[in-house]
Amino acid sequence: MVSVLRVCSRPLCCSCNGYINQQCYASCLSSIVSTYDKYLSTCCSSKFNDNVVQNFTQIQLNTVTRRPPPNTSHFSECFHVSFYSSHAKNTTPRRYLKKGPSKNLRAISKSTFNQAQFQNAISQLPHRFTPEDLYKVITLQDDPQVCLEIFNWASQQPRFRHDVSTYHITIKKLGSAKFFQEMDDVVNQVLAVPSCGSEALFNTIIYFFTEARKLSRAINVYKYMRRSKDSSCKPSVRTYNILFAALLGRGSNTYINYMYMDTISCLFKQMVNDGIEPDIFSLNFMIKGYAQSLHVNDALRVFHQMGVVYNCLPNSHTYNYLIHGLCVQGRTVNAKELYEEMKNKGFVPSSKAYNSLVNCFAINGEIEEAEKILWEVAEKRVVIDFITYQTVLNEICRQGMIGKAMLLLNELQEKDLVDGHAYRKLLCGVEDEFRISNCRN
Questions:
Q1: How do the domains of the chain map onto residue ranges?
Q2: Which family does the record assign (predicted)?
Q3: Exposure check for the chain: N or C terminus, fewer CB within 10 A?
Q4: In 10 A of CB 80, how many CB atoms?
Q5: In DSSP terms, which residues pair with 57 in a beta bridge?
Q6: CA 397, CA 395: separation in Å to the nearest integer?
Q7: Residues with Cβ < 8 Å from 222, sequence gap 6 or more?
Q8: CA geometry: angle 252, 255, 256, nearest 5 deg
Q9: pLDDT tens across 310-349, in order?
């Protein structure tokens, strides 16, 4: 078997280094056939069946283009003969992809901490330290892992019990560093002690749970506060504001806001029924939620109740939320009334409110009113987005005033309200509208 392989590996034509041209094709082909016959006979004598032989070796005649040898320059095509095994090792180079650290490595790096800093911190504590002493030491630490180790070490000391201050500072350190799993373990210790807790501590826990997107855990802590018999642990208006902000921050989609608005309404009713007076933040959260979920009439109802029922005056955010919600529904008359009332009270609309007003008037075909507000915005140097300019120009073109659209666009460029890139894109839009109008005519 070895001798046959050596015969097969010998060059078949020494004059062309393994490549057969047309002159020596016949002689080389006969040599190929004889060599292959010898190989088959040897394999058969070695009790290999035909399938194994066929799978083990093959002959491939490939027509390749190669520079001819010196003595065969008049031929441009040569025939390459090669023997190869179908079980040959795959020589395709492996691709080594750069991988990030595995979960185990991340866990190890997260669990490591500065041992020297830990020893230095506990050495500052007296022999019989109090929770106040521990609070001061943990406050001075920058490494959250060291804070956690100090907290756990103190828990194992005899005659020591954590109080609200040590729980609070530890949860703050872990939550700020996004050590949410470790923070959750400390929170479970707090909830396991009935007489331990405060309104500020539970508000911090709820806040960091909402930051960790553990909304169900935040709601459970809120329910724990309501069930508590200690008046200092009851929910406050700040507790509800944290929950309102978390629920409204779940997404900017109208459908998502619509789904969460029922929960926000129930929480608001519970707050009022418990005798907690809502502040400007609570009322603005309600108006914002109703406006974003397209319940604009409910938002207006809360707006009119602010000064009468809740003894709280609206601010600029209140008007901005209402103007945006009214413009989304195309209620330009109500939006303009609130806009004038807002200006009379000395409030300045936000960029979002201005863009909503200009877009709403332009879409409804009120070009003059849209241009009037547009120039008011330009005087106050409030940012107007590209879509607003495009909407106004497109509506002017649809009304057949192509020349007016070009004058407005040139005036915007002269006053540096649009840059060169935006000007070219807006100009292309005006030209497209001009071609469409010509085709219609």
A1: 2-85, 112-235, 385-441
A2: Belongs to the PPR family. P subfamily.
A3: C
A4: 14
A5: 85
A6: 5
A7: 202, 206, 235, 239, 243
A8: 55
A9: 989 999 999 999 999 999 988 989 999 999 999 999 998 8
pLDDT tens-digit map of 44-74: 444 444 444 444 444 333 433 344 444 444 4
pLDDT tens digit string along 220-254? 999 999 999 888 899 999 999 999 999 888 655 55
| Tokens describing residue 290 | 């109703």
pTM of the model: 0.69
Cα 216 to the chain's mean position, in Å? 21
Instruction: Give the Cα separation of 137 and 76 in Å (integer).
Output: 87
What residues does 62 pair with on adjacent strands? 80
DSSP per position, 268-305: HHHHHHTTPPP-HHHHHHHHHHHHHTT-HHHHHHHHHH
Which tokens is 17 given? Answer: 């280094």
CA distance 279 to 12: 96
Name the average pLDDT for the chain: 77
Query: How many Å apart are CA 332 and CA 191, to the nearest integer?
Result: 52
